[in-house]
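Go through this pair.

…
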Amino acid sequence: MSTYWAGPLLKEGFSIIRLTDEESRSSAELIPAIGNNLYRFTCDGVEVLMPPASLSSLWHEQNEVFKYGTPLLSPPNRVRNGRFLFKGREYKLPLNEPPDHHLHGELCSKAWKVVGYGASEEEGAWVTSQFRYADHPEIMAYFPHMLVFTMTYRLKAGRLYLEGGIENKGVEEAPFAFGLHPYFAVPFGDGEEIALRVPAAGEWPVTNQAFVIGTPEESAFSRELRQGASIENYPLLGCSLITMGQDSERTCRIEMKNRNYTIAYQFDQTFPYVVLFRPDWASSYSLEPYTYVTDAFNLPYEHELTGARGIRAGEQVRFTTGMWIEK
C-alpha cells in the first residue's frame, strides 16, 4: 500500500484536492475554484503556509485571495495606472487597487480546471490544474493572448514541489510576467529569534508599494541576507526587492531558532528576483519569486536588468519550485 494519497474532498462547501504523505506526516490542500491556491501545507507537525481563517473568507472578502496560502500572480505586484506598452501595443489592465493601480492579475481569483491527480511510490501525490485565457473573454478583452497555465503540485518525501508550464498558443508574442506569493507561517512575537538567508546579489531601491525608484546595488541588507539576516523586527507591510545570485543554488531559508526548525524554499532561474514582504494581517512572511521586477515594462532600464520580456508564439516557459522543513 502506498504512503501517498491524492483526491478530492468537500470542505466548507468547496471542492478541494488534498495530497498526503503518511511517512513524513505531510499534507497539502489546493482549492481550484479560488485561483488554484495551494492554501495549506503541513509537514511533520509544522504549519508551513499561513491558511485563511476560512475558505469562505477567501472567496467573499475583497482582496483576501492575495493574503493567504500561495497566490499565483500574472503580472505579479503592481502595474502603475494599469497601463504599459509592449511591442508598440498599449495594454490597459483593470484598476483593482484604489486609486489607480492594477495588482497581481486575475489568475489568483478565478477558477482553474483540474485535469488530473494521482498517487504512487514513484510519483508521490500530485494534482495538475490548468487555466486558459481563451476561456475568459473578460481577460482577452484587455490581454488578447492565448496563454495557457499548467501547474502540477507534487508532494513527495515530505517536500512539496510546483512544476509549472506557461505556453503561448496564440500567433503573437505576448508580454510575460509571472510570480508566486507564498505566505510562510512565521511565529513573530516576543523573544522569537528569526533569521532569513537568501543568496542575494543586490537590492533594488523601492517604495512601500514595491515600485522601483533606482537600479540595484549590493547593500548592507543584501550582504546580511547571504549570512542570515534577523527579521524578527522587519517592519509590518515592509518590502524589499532582491536580485538573486546568478550561480546560487536559489534556496532561501527562514530559520526559527527558538523552535529548532527551518522553512526552506527553492526556485529555479526562471525567477531572477524575489520580493520579501511582511503582512500586517497574519503572523507570516512572504518570499515571492518573480520573473521581472515590479512594473518592469514601464521602467526606463534595459530589459536584461528588469526581466521585462515576451513569450513568443508557440513558446513554453517551464519552472520548478520546492518547499520543505529542515529540523
Observations:
- The mean pLDDT is 96.
- The chain is about 5% helix and 45% strand.
- The first helix runs from residue 55 to 60.
